[in-house]
Amino acid sequence: MAEESGLDTERRQTEIKELVAKLAQFRPTKIALEMVPEDGEVCQEKYSRYQQGTYELEMNEYYQLGFRLADQLEHAQLYPVDWMGVADRGYGEVESWAREHQPELLEDMLKNLSFPALKPEKDLLSYYQELNDPVFLQQVDTFYLNVARIGTISNNVGIDWLSWWYKRNLIQFANLTRLADSPDERILFIVGASHVRIVENFLRESGCVEVVGALDYLKS
């Protein structure tokens, strides 16, 4: 979410409440966030203030969706499960290298990737349905996998960054499984679309949890 999308308008706030109501149908027992544990204490302090009515929600889905839903369900806390670390090479450097040395590959990768946009005429529910559409999520996953092709046999430019990306998603996966304390646990993960398919695949392939897509609830 972004502030310039006008999420503080009465219309958007009504749409956010509708979105929260859709997610509430999942009946999550815990809500996990794309946030590093190091920020967990600050997050918890903000959530406590929100529960007390002394914190105005920031224009971010952690707060607009996560805090609202957690409070509605009377959760005591939310759970940061992300990791950042330091990559050997930044994505911007990888893309710049590809533009100079492998422009046709990069063009081919990008032509099949189109992120949904939150336009003034589009409601939030439709926007989130687009972000969780399986076709779009597969396009994103395919793009990231093909980053590995950027470089040469002796210079793995794309993999220098991609190894960090996969490690980050693996840690998200591992931390999510650590939150599952019982067979009855229902964990909602609020995370950017770029992570969804890869983390879902890790979870499914692990065989330790059942994965339910958000779209099942956003379209209900």
From TrEMBL:
InterPro entries on file: DUF5694
Pfam families: DUF5694 (PF18950)
Protein name listed in UniProt: DUF5694 domain-containing protein
Species in which this protein is naturally found: Chryseomicrobium palamuruense
Classification of source organism: Bacteria, Bacillati, Bacillota, Bacilli, Bacillales
